[in-house]
Amino acid sequence: MCSKLLFSLLIIFIFYHDSIEAQKKKETLLSEKVTQMMEWTSRRSVIRMNGDKFRRFVKAPPRNYSVVIMFTALQPQRQCTVCRQADEEFQVLANSWRYSSAFTNKVFFASVDFDEGSDVFQMLNMNSAPTFLHFPAKGKPRKSDTYELQVKGFAAEQLARWVADRTNVQIRVIRPPNYAGPLLLGFLLAVIGGLAYLRRNNLEFLFNNKVWAISALCFVLIMTSGQMWNHIRGPPYAHKNPNTGQISYIHGSSQAQFVAETHIVLLFNAAVTMGIVLLCEAATSDVDIGKRKIMCVAGIALVVLFFSWLLSIFRAKYHGYPYRSQYHL
After folding, report:
1. d(CA 254, CA 40)
2. Residues 6+ apart with CB under 8 A from 203
């Protein structure tokens, strides 16, 4: 009886000892991984990863830290303009976190380039770039751990909100000073001031109705085309499919848009406006009848052609158009 009891105690002791050793090894491995990640972050705010680093420091346990990874294709032969733009914003976000007083080892930022880690792209069944994924400290990534780039854009402020939602880590985005805007404004004011000074004896142009009308019209066209949305959201200029190489200038969703799309809409709106102006001039102008006919035809052509193209864009983004009433008996 005593021998059985001693044997049982010995077995329990061996298992307990093995579990303690396993726990120590796990803690040692985790400490080494965190130390290595901190060392890489001290050199670069965004850690560059290949397949081996990804499997060891992101996929393989143990891990008590989150990793936000941008999957991209920055090599020149890929011709991914959006990737370079998104990379700049991602660098701003990572630098803001790295050099903040709240920096900890809770979250790390990394990137995987297709030409350096194509096996990672295959592992995750990923066929587009750039893509942002959050790998939580515990468990597998969920659907919400994939950033909705096409909807929210890649501005650092939008990415920071997404990171805060996934990790509860608040990052205050700090951008390097950009003097281009103030310099351009100063140059514009200097030009306007210089012109006003040169024509100080004749300032009738300031009371010219056409000048103010054209200025107001330009402002309205810029605002109605979606430029303010671009400024807030920071969407990509266009989207290039990495598989087919096809470039899309019109976003397929009504909840998002590309920068190129706003330029196209601005051009179409301006053409329709020009057509309306020509029609009004044809009806009220004192020029000869032949010129008025030409203005009328040109105005009708501009309105019909460009407004139909505007409707085509609207139909492509709002798939239920044209809307029809449905009656249920």
Report:
1. 41
2. 196
Tens digit of each residue's pLDDT (9 = 90 or more) over 83-140: 888 898 999 999 999 998 889 889 999 999 998 888 999 888 888 888 999 999 888 8
Tokens of 136: 């939580």
pTM beyond 0.70: the answer is no
Q: Can you give the pLDDT at residue 71?
A: 93
Rounded to whole angstroms, the Cα distance separating 201 from 186 reads 24
Q: Which residues of 185-218 are buried (b: 16+ CB within 10 A; e: fewer)?
A: eeeeeeeeeeeeeeeeeeeeeeeeeeeeeeeeee
> Cα dist. 27→52, 62, 64 in Å?
21, 8, 10
Burial of 10 (0-12, 13-18, 19+ CB in 10 A): exposed
Q: What is the pLDDT of residues 266-276, one digit of tens each?
A: 899 999 999 99
- Cα(268)–Cα(274) distance, rounded to whole angstroms? 10
Render pLDDT for 185-228 as a digit per residue (tens, 0 to 9). Answer: 888 889 878 877 777 677 676 777 887 888 888 888 888 888 77
Q: Is 124 exposed, middle or buried (0-12, 13-18, 19+ CB in 10 A)?
A: middle
Backbone angles phi, psi at 288, to 5 degrees: -70, 160
